[in-house]
Batch of 2 targets.
Target 1
Amino acid sequence: MTSEPGDPTLEELAVSAAAGDREALEQLLAEIQPHVRRICGRMLIYPEDAEEATQDALMLVATKIGSFGGRSKFTTWLHVVASNSARSTYRSLKRRAAERPTDELPHTPDPRTTSVIAGSRLDLMEALDVIGVDHPELVEPLVLRDVQQLDYQEIATVLGIPLGTVKSRIHSARHAVRPLLTIKD
C-alpha cells in the first residue's frame, strides 16, 4: 500500500469512498487488495481459500464502505472486515467438506502437504469456532490481537468497547482456547 507524493492516503480515499465517490472506491479497492490478501493468508492455509476470502472481503468493503464512520483508522476497520471474511470462508469450506460424500475425502492427512503451521492454523480456526458458540464476544478480540496483531487500543476503538474489556476478553479467550490447542497423543 504505497502511494506517490500528492496521492490521497488510504484514510482520505476511505472517507471519500464512504461519502459516495465511486472513483475513490475503485482506487481504494486496488490499493488494499494485497493487504487484504495478506490478512486472509494469515488465517487460511491454502492460497485459493485465502483468495476466496480476499474477494469476499473486497466485496464487503465495496458494499459496506458507507458504514465506515472514521471512529478508527481505516486499516483497523479493514482488519476486522478481512478477518471476519477469512473466518466466514473457513466455516463455509468446513460445511462444504462435511457435505461431500466420504469416499471423496482423503482417509488420512498427507504429511507431505500438511505442515505444522497449517495444522496449527486449522486447530486455531476450530478452537475459535468452538468458543464462538458460547462466547462469541471473545473471538474477534482474540483474532485481532493474536492473529492480526493489532494493539489493544486499536481493538478497543474498532469494537467500541473499553480498553479494560478488550484485555479481559482476550485473556478469557486465550484461557478458553488453550485446552483446545493442547497437543493430544
Note: Confidence is low (pLDDT under 50) at residues 107-119.
Target 2
Amino acid sequence: MRIEFDRDTCVGMYQCVAEWDAFERNRDDGKADLAGAEEVEPDLFSLEVPDDAELDAKFAARTCPVDAIRLYDDDGERVV
C-alpha cells in the first residue's frame, strides 16, 4: 500500500496526526508533514505504508477534511 499526501492542499487541522504517527505537526508552516516520505512532485509526498500501519493510514486518510491524503493498493487502485 502506498500513501500520497498533497501538502499544498493541507489546511493544518492535524486530524491525520491523531490517527497515524507518521504524520507530524509542522507548526512553522501550519501544515502536517509525512515523515520519511519522498517528494515526487512539488508539495506531493509519497510513502510505502508498512503492513502493520495500513489501518492507521486508512484512518488518517479518511479523517482529512480536505482530502489531502490518498491511499493506493499494490495494484495502483485508489483505496481511500
Note: The beta strands are 2-6, 23-26, 31-34, 38-41, 44-48, 69-72.
